[in-house]
Amino acid sequence: MKIVITLATLSAMSLRGASAACGDVKTIASITGDPSSCNYANFLAALGTTGECTEDEIFALLGVSEDAGEREEYVDELCAYDAPVQFVEIQGTYQLDRRYFAGGGPLVDGGDDWATRSWKIQNFHNNMGDSTIISWPEYLARIDYNAGVDGNGNPLNPEGQSDNGYPANMNLDVSCALQTAMCCFVDDSNGPSPDDFASVMTTDVCRHDLANSRQSNHINHGWSVFPGAEKPVHCTGFTWEDETIDLIGNLMYDASLSLTATKGYLKAIPGAPMCGCVEHMPVVEKAACRKAKVADGTDVTFTFNYADGDLSAENEASIVYEDCDGDLKAEYQAVHADNADAIDAHLVGDGGCEADIVDYLNEEQFLHVGVSPTRYLDVNATGGSWSDLLVGEGTRFMPPDLDIVKSDAEFRAMFAACLPTKQRFCMLRRVCDSCTTPSHRDIYYQRIGTTVDDLPKGYGGAVDEEGDPIFDVDNGETNLQELFTDMWMSAENILGVNFNLYSSYADALSGDGAWTWCNYDHKGIGFPRDCGPTGPVHNNWNSYKKFGHGYANYHGYYIELP
Ligand SMILES: *[C@@H]1O[C@H](CO)[C@@H](O)[C@H](O)[C@H]1NC(C)=O
Predict the structure, then answer these.
(1) Bridge partners of residue 560, in order along the sequence
(2) pTM, whole model, 2 decimals?
(3) Residue minimizing CA distance to atom 7 of ligand 1
(4) Atom from ligand 1 closest to the CA of residue 379
């Protein structure tokens, strides 16, 4: 190796009265400890131990200023990106990793025979798989992409939204909240034993929401369901508390390329990534579970080598991979005891697919496969006695009456019909099958007051150029039908003063659980704008003129019968 000592380095060395050896090609520091011991403080201590370079000497050679913060950052970067084996080094390029994790690429479906396709990962497996710390996949090529915004300031990559280099479906910063990752394979035919899945845990696959991995399947919205039994699928995963101590890069290697190298496992569940944080993976019944640790009684050694104005770092470790005590769900529940239920939506347990698929299609995709407890309500079967549909959209379609003076008068009469018998207005109820927020699937509007004068001001006689009647909105005149369909106004219509909202008929009768938050007065936006039980709830309003802009496109209004 050639040593280049520039004039600048020489003068820096002489200014600082350097030891003769600093600047030679050699190891200047060596840290031993647990996987988190590669850090600035330990680096400084290790410099002192070898005595090859002082702190000032080495940073002068590296062109790093005297600022302690900059020096620490320099060492932190070495520890994060240089000391561990980068995941990308196993296959060699970002593109190969990207396609592999998505379930494709030359390794998965290339034309060469298996030995040719796989020699590189076999080689890594045999030489380094258990003797080094591997970093979680991260790529320079992704940093701009993850942070990018379009011309309107919206993120190019909704799952990204931060300037890191994590790949699709594995972004630790923004979409890996459960700290659990999983790989699922459907093909075991390349391994040394022809039917390897027979000897490992296999699972039924329930379904995959395609929007959860749109960056790898290139589909914005959609779903796949896998009812009944398919061929066996092997899913394996891991969960962690501490990214560094728990060796999550090694675990990702163990769950992906290592299994491919040793057992020939390949190919993803259709529409899903082959590997990703569990939030991005298909819902399955169960998955195998793996752990990794530094072998008991051993330490990791981080070595810092200087050469040619550059400092590099490497590590040596004895890594043990092993099965967890139970499956991935059990391990998750043990490691994340404070949030143990969160895994249930992803690993539904033996025989859990059938119910999961029915729930999913009803709750998320709005199909009448089973009967959702909060959609397609029969108004007369859920408390109170209700009119026929007054006005509605979608599956509860009933167009608004275009004679606005007449329809307003009808609404007033219907509201007032309860006054003689109940000493209150009749309630108006909106049932919304397509609303995304459960609180907005059934809402009760109870007007406050005891006489018709407690309703908002009515039609005042104004007409437009064509002589058709118009409500003078600026004067507070309210078309009671339009108040709900398209123009949710605050004129004599203030929550807690003129009306209350409730989530059930029983609440509305007792006065319990009244909603506490409302806004109004956005032209073209109808009931209930962003009103919510305890705070704003967006996009669950209806609008007959801006049809399609909110989530309430399937809803209907009913009024209480006296
Ligand atoms: C609810 O029941 C009442 C009274 O029996 C009936 O008049 C009304 O049509 C029913 N409403 C619906 C939507 O079926």
Answers:
(1) 386
(2) 0.69
(3) 387
(4) 13
Distance CA 560, CA 539 (A): 26
Structural domain boundaries of the chain? Answer: 88-287+327-355, 371-559
Ligand 1 center to residue 229 CA distance, Å?
Answer: 44
* Residue nearest ligand 1's atom 5 by CA: 385
Distance CA 532, CA 381 (A): 24
How far is ligand 1, taken at its centre, from the CA of residue 374, in Å? 20
- Helical (H) or strand (E) element with 353: helix 353-363
Distance between Cα 379 and ligand 1 center (Å): 8
* List of residues 6+ apart from 487 with CB closer than 8 A: 473, 479, 523, 524, 525, 526
* Helix (H/G/I), strand (E/B), else coil: 284: strand
- Ligand 1 center–CA 382 separation, angstroms: 12
The continuous run of DSSP H or E covering 207 comes out as strand 205-209
Instruction: For ligand 1, pick from 378, 379, 387 the residue to mutate: most ligand atoms within 8 Å of CB.
Output: 387
Pocket test for ligand 1, best of 377, 386, 427, 560 (most atoms within 8 A of CB): 386
Whether the CA torsion 479, 484, 485, 489 is positive or negative: it is positive
Residue ranges around ligand 1 (CB below 6 Å): 379-380, 385-386, 388
pLDDT tens string for the chain (562 positions)? 333 333 333 334 444 444 557 889 999 999 999 999 999 999 999 999 999 999 999 999 999 999 999 999 999 999 999 999 999 999 999 999 999 999 988 888 877 888 888 899 999 999 999 999 999 999 988 888 888 776 666 666 655 567 889 999 999 988 899 999 999 999 998 888 878 899 999 999 999 999 899 888 998 888 899 988 888 999 999 999 999 999 999 999 999 999 999 999 999 999 999 999 999 999 999 999 999 999 999 999 999 999 999 999 999 999 999 999 999 999 999 999 999 999 999 999 999 999 999 888 877 777 666 667 788 889 999 889 999 999 999 889 999 988 999 999 999 999 999 999 999 999 999 999 989 888 999 999 999 999 999 999 999 999 999 999 999 988 989 999 999 999 999 999 999 999 999 999 999 999 999 999 999 999 889 999 999 999 999 889 999 987 566 789 899 999 999 9
